[in-house]
Design a protein that fits this description.
Structural class: mainly alpha
Number of strands: 2
Helix content: 55-70%
Distance between the termini: 37 Å
Largest sheet: 2 strands, antiparallel
Mean pLDDT: 90
Number of helices: 6
Radius of gyration: 16 Å
Length: about 180
């Protein structure tokens, strides 16, 4: 995992400790920014192709829900003490996984995806709350992370960085529209 900027301007490094309550607040605020953005879009714009390549806003939301669902499963399985069986530990290229999920969910109605999107972060936060500060920040606690990052670092990359990447992309798309 490369070092990157957090959504709030602080440099985030793979093993940089996080304060749990501040981390949860960042998860809530990041998600709310996306909810607010999409809520302000006219309904007809939410399903137009082109928001991200050929994808519509609906497709981007489905993509984000699926990655976050994998993170929730990872957290649950880590909490049980086992090695997660999620996409993060499989040898499938990210673009291939995204294409597979897009094909599976492209015909799902916006309302169903929106409902999933608006509630998924609560599930993530419930999982994060189950972990202690040490469990979130210890790079050697979970052998399957191979000491390369912490559980908090993985969550940051998969959720917070992902939120910001797509929010920037969607805002740029919105500004480019007539």
């Amino acid at each position: 995992m490369k070092a990157g900027k957090s959504p709030y301007g602080q440099k985030h490094m793979p093993n940089q400790p996080v304060e749990k309550e501040q981390f949860i607040r960042a998860l809530k605020e990041s998600h709310q920014a996306l909810v607010d953005f999409v809520s302000e879009l006219p309904a007809e714009e939410r399903t137009l192709p082109g928001a991200a390549g050929d994808w519509s806003v609906k497709d981007v939301l489905a993509h984000m829900v699926l990655w976050e669902a994998e993170m929730i499963k990872t957290l649950f399985q880590a909490r049980q003490g086992g090695k997660p069986s999620t996409v993060f530990l499989k040898n499938i290229p990210v673009d291939d996984q995204n294409a597979l999920w897009y094909a599976q969910f492209k015909d799902r109605p916006f309302e169903r995806i929106w409902n999933d999107f608006t509630i998924i972060r609560d599930q993530t936060i419930r999982q994060v709350q189950e972990f202690s500060q040490n469990e979130l920040n210890n790079p050697h606690l979970y052998p399957w992370l191979k000491g390369k990052t912490t559980l908090a670092g993985l969550i940051h990359q998969v959720i917070l960085d992902h939120d910001q990447e797509h929010l920037r992309m969607l805002r740029a798309w919105k500004q480019s529209r007539p």
